[in-house]
Design a protein that fits this description.
Blueprint: H1 2-29, H2 33-47, H3 50-59, H4 65-80, H5 96-108, H6 110-124, H7 127-146
Helix pairs in contact: 1-2, 1-7, 4-6
Length: 160
């Protein structure tokens, strides 16, 4: 099963990388830098969604229906526990100090809340699922490291 996951992740990542590279290259050759800028902005947006990327990886595991229900409940509880800066608004008044306080609490507690959520989700997984998750995380980090290193014997990043 691990081999199937690794092979499918590798094939998917390879296909996605080559499609993205081809699209970016064709956009640049045609002088349509707008599409290139949009794809770059989308990639940057994904970088900021680390928690969501983790959830996508967890949901790719072979979870039982009970595990899936537990994971979703953990995520919902985590979202509800976040301070909302919009609570500083009323129909007639904006409380600047309250907004700043809530925004700071949200930002400063983000890492702790994320770590707590991951810890709870990790506790729901069995040993095999934990191993598979680790494999997926390792593959993702390898793909990130290899991104942009499109080298062969004659050509390395456009240089000879």
């Amino acid at each position: 099963m691990n081999k199937k996951i690794i092979l499918s992740l590798t094939a998917t990542a390879l296909l996605a990388t080559s499609l993205l590279a081809f699209n970016g290259q064709s956009q640049m050759q045609q002088g349509k830098s707008q599409g290139y800028k949009q794809s770059k902005m989308m990639m940057q947006g994904q970088r900021h969604k680390g928690g969501f990327m983790f959830m996508k990886m967890v949901m790719k595991l072979d979870l039982t229906s009970e595990q899936r229900t537990e994971v979703i409940a953990i995520v919902k509880k985590n979202v509800k526990s976040m301070p909302n800066p919009h609570e500083a608004f009323t129909d007639t008044v904006f409380d600047k100090k309250e907004f700043i306080k809530l925004a700071n609490e949200r930002r400063n507690g983000k890492i702790e809340r994320k770590a707590d959520m991951i810890e709870k989700i990790y506790a729901v997984l069995n040993a095999s699922q934990r191993k598979d998750l680790k494999t997926i995380l390792d593959m993702r980090s390898i793909m990130k490291k290899n991104k942009g290193m499109n080298c062969n014997a004659k050509n390395c990043n456009g240089r000879r």
